[in-house]
């Protein structure tokens, strides 16, 4: 049984999301109550979204019912940033598209792309994205966008690789 406004929220989301992407059983909530940090917050509802249209509708409903939401990409945050005791919105499997411009000076990435995968896409151009966290094999662009404000300039042989290969204005 979902508490308070969460029950109405769940019903409105059921109109356009399958049950498999709306988790509120004890075990799932417990599992999503941890990230890489040592904190724990148990969400009332976990919502897995695969499209922008879905996110727009989920956010509109959460605003209407005044229910706080938190996004999660890979969940490697170390200070509990990807935890919620309200609604946890998870980037489910999708959000993996990318585009590299003609001279490879810019890569456009969806938030579900893993950092190391972005570097694989750029490898033929001998470039890398700017952020280089130790969690690069798991952390995703959606999480970088919030966290990785510090900018690095990388060197590879004689060529200087600019961090503006990752253009934040084009991240979604
Ligand atoms: C072993 C290890 C090593 C690490 N090394 C480093 C390091 O070297 N440097 C460093 O800075 N950090 C490091 N971290 C911390 C963490 O990996 C980074 O903060 C990373 O950027 C988080 O990415 P994530 O995909 O896991 O995001 P999450 O943890 O899922 O989310 C991070 C934040 O972004 C928000 N968010 C996620 N997706 C979206 C979205 N689509 N839209 C809006 N907001 C969104 C979340 O709500 C949360 O606030 C490390 C963590 C681990 C476990």
Short description:
This protein has a 4-stranded mixed sheet, with helices on one face. Strands 5-6 form a two-stranded antiparallel ribbon. The chain has a two-stranded antiparallel ribbon with strand order 7-8.
Share of helix among residues? Answer: 25-40%
> How is the CATH topology of the largest domain named?
Uridine Diphospho-n-acetylenolpyruvylglucosamine Reductase, domain 2
Helix and strand string, N-terminal first?
A: HEHEHEEEEHHEE
CA distance, first residue to last residue: 34 Å
Q: Which consecutive residue ranges, at least 5 long each, have pLDDT under 50? A: 150-172
Largest sheet: spatial strand order: 1-2-4-3
Shape: globular
Top-tier CATH class of the largest domain: Alpha Beta
